[in-house]
Amino acid sequence: MMALHRKKIDTRDLRIGMYVEALDRPWLETPYLLEGVEVNTDEDIDELRALCAYVYIRSDEPETAEDKTPAGYGEGVIPPLGERTPRSFRQELSAARQIHSNARGLIRTIHEEIAENRRPDTAAVTEVVEQMMDSVARHPDALVWFSNLKSRDEYTAIHSLNVCMQAVSLATFVGNDERAIKEMGIGALLHDVGKIKVPLAILNKPGKLTEAEYDEIKKHPQYGVEILQKASGLTPASLDIVRDHHERLNGRGYPAGLRGSEISYYTQIVAIADVYDAMTSDRIYQKGRTPAEALKLMSSFEGDFNDELLRQFTDYHGEYPVGTLVELNTGEVGFVIPTPERQEKPTVLLVLDYKKRRYFPQRVRDLMRFPKFFVNRMLAPGTHGVDVEDYAETWET
């Protein structure tokens, strides 16, 4: 069998069919989330030429001293608490994925503890929220990427986690007190624990609820407070969020029909994150909406939400939130990935071709640089069986 080697070439000499193993710069400084590019189209060549003067291709010619490249970056782990040195999206993704996994397991454990009449481990909740805050500080998009992970079978746990991540990200984006964000995050992660006391037949009912059933659903905030008051270490601010996250500024919420400033600022943030995630998730009784559809509908709920916070939430996500699944005019499907600055057109990691077959390796396309490509439509999470977590595992560095 012929041995393959690495060969350095000028990007002007790139041809379709080549496989690029390395660049003239770290992969972390480029839009590519995978290390390695298969050159299949003229657009692939144009992208590489725009980024690099030279690249290293796979070749059957012997390797020379000039062809050798420096070692790459190693895989990351969750940094120590308080470590907030900025990192690239790819660098932070591994830590964010682990934080997400830990938090997901913690929520399951808390539900088990409550079901067995044991006190939930609030110290573990505090640590997970602090890890989330650190992750958002290191890179604002890595953790939010996982809020696109949905599970109808595990809805309450995943929803609680997503609401916490979205709320912490928004509060950090608009600039708020660290202690207050932590208290808010704890309340957000625990906001739906009271549902464990609501009969599953009501929670999982596919049809319209009766008035009596809806009245029972509306008790879950108070159930949650009663459960968590027995735990140690929770502040009144965190408990306010558990009790009031369904209240609305116009007084049309529950359980107390609070109005305006009677609802804390941080509860107002959680309320937005709560409704947004619920709307973009598949439920037994409805199909999840796209982010754009959800935000448009929320804006039509006159007086429900803090208008300025909802605007900031929309600005934070942009027209195409990171992790959103989209279909291009070519029929290709991919995820919106971060760019150094929010831009009018997104950069997309393409994972399916126009026949909805998996790309391997995946490719990155910056729609700002290639105007003939554009987003045809946004897709609900999980469409075509595409899952953000599957691809996150591939990208970890």
List the helices and strands and how they pair.
Layout: E1 5-10, E2 19-23, E3 37-38, H1 42-51, E4 54-59, H2 89-115, H3 122-138, H4 142-145, H5 155-174, H6 178-189, H7 200-203, H8 211-217, H9 220-228, H10 236-244, H11 265-279, H12 291-299, H13 307-317, E5 325-328, E6 333-337, E7 347-352, E8 358-366, E9 375-379, H14 388-395
Helix pairs in contact: 2-3, 2-5, 2-14, 3-5, 3-6, 5-6, 5-11, 6-10, 9-10, 11-12
Write up what this structure looks like.
With 397 residues, the protein is of the alpha+beta class. It folds into three domains: 5-62, no CATH class; 89-317, Hypothetical protein af1432; 325-395, no CATH class. The chain has 14 helices and nine strands. The chain has helices spanning 42-51, 89-115, 122-138, 142-145, 155-174, 178-189, 200-203, 211-217, 220-228, 236-244, 265-279, 291-299, 307-317, 388-395, and strands at 5-10, 19-23, 37-38, 54-59, 325-328, 333-337, 347-352, 358-366, 375-379. It has a five-stranded antiparallel β-sheet, with no helix packed on it. A four-stranded antiparallel β-sheet has the order 1-4-2-3, covered by helices on one side. A hairpin with a 5-residue loop joins strand 7 (347-352) and strand 8 (358-366). Helix 2 (89-115) crosses helix 14 and helix 6 (178-189) crosses helix 10 (236-244). The longest helix has 27 residues, at 89-115. The protein starts with a strand and ends with a helix.
